[in-house]
Amino acid sequence: MIEDIELETLINEVYEYYGFDFGSYSRASLKRRVNRIYQLDGFTYFEEFLSKVRSDSEYYKRMVDEITVNVTEMFRDPSFYTVIRNQILPLLGTKPFIRLWHAGCSTGEEVYSVAILLKEAGLLHKSLIYATDINTTVLETAKKGIFPLRMMKEYSENYRDSGGKEDFSNYYTANYGIAKFNEELSKKMVFSQHNLVSDTSFNEFDLIFCRNVLIYFDNDLQKRAINLFDESLSVLGFLALGTKETIKYSISQSKYKQVEKEKIWRKIK
Amino acid sequence: MEENQINQDFKVVIIGGSAGSLNVLMQILPQLPVIKTFAVVIVLHRKSTDDQTLEELIKLKVRSNVKPIEDKVPFLPGFIYIAPSNYHLLFEKNDVLSLDTSEKINYSRPSIDVSFESAAEVYKNRLTGILLSGSNADGTEGLKSVKNEGGTIIIQDPDSAEMPFMPNHAIQNTTPDYVLNIQQILQFILSIDN
What number is the ipTM of this complex? Predict the structure, then answer.
């Protein structure tokens, strides 16, 4: 187990050597993740671990991949997707063209979930879905649209609970333990690396998803990210966060109107 | 200032449980007066949907305020907190709570081990970890951390547990300070404010 002061040393060294700043990440979760890989990779001395991170950029990349949380699922919180399906998409459907952004998309389960909703609403053909993450390894998985077949039972239940009426298995081809989602869904997706800590706005969007990403950030970094989303949202666009996240402490409430009790806010000016 | 000083050394009780533990909580929580000098955190294995049934149920049964947990909410004495479904619950050094959606631990999210381990680091000897009925091994590793950091560990007497596996597993692998039945657990919690 590493000490608090060792974690701070690691954060500083990573910033110095690689320019990546974990300084505004929530410590409880970050420390747990660093301890996890430290033990997983069999280190006994912190110095040994630190020197490996410093001198071996491949290992550094592995460490970043492992300490950033990449757990995601399709149609997580079905009731959230019901609101997207029934309330948000009909509003966006009146636009000639719809731009969406999944910030911190991880392996892409949420991106494919939303693409399915767009398809069922007859909007996919005029949508463009940007999906970004800091971790390039997960983006490769997301691009392929290949997920474990064993998860499909749970995902199809979530899909049904969210109001889905189709046969969920029509959206993928099952093969040797994997489910490959139809290219019809992925051809409207653009994947690229983007870092919420240091990168800026790159387009204007009608709907931004950033679910269960801000929980890993401290208040200052949350503010930065929310302001970045604000700059990237069109007026009357929507921002969707995780069920336990809020914009309340990060931006003026007069600019946004919450959609009922959901963690979805509409930019009103 | 005075209030800050009281807050600075408040005690924390985390109750972890799985199958058969809701019943135990329903016998303990309604008997508690409004708690003052400590905070209670409930970490139960539950369905991974975002439903508030557990929160609503507990709210109806207790006299203390139940604080809904959202990301980075202040963690204060005098309140009961309930770990939300589908997140691990962690404790930050500056007395705020944070959430994490990383891999399930012991097939569970929230995992009792994760909350015990995280709180042990911050609250050390001010922490009491109580492990109730269940049929999985979650909680044992966390109780070890609580003990290592100087906290108190209490395990429900397996004879009083609907599902004795979880308490038995913990008793066999830790050195509990107390093994108590439901009534005795209530008495222990009542004694904290005195």
Answer: 0.92
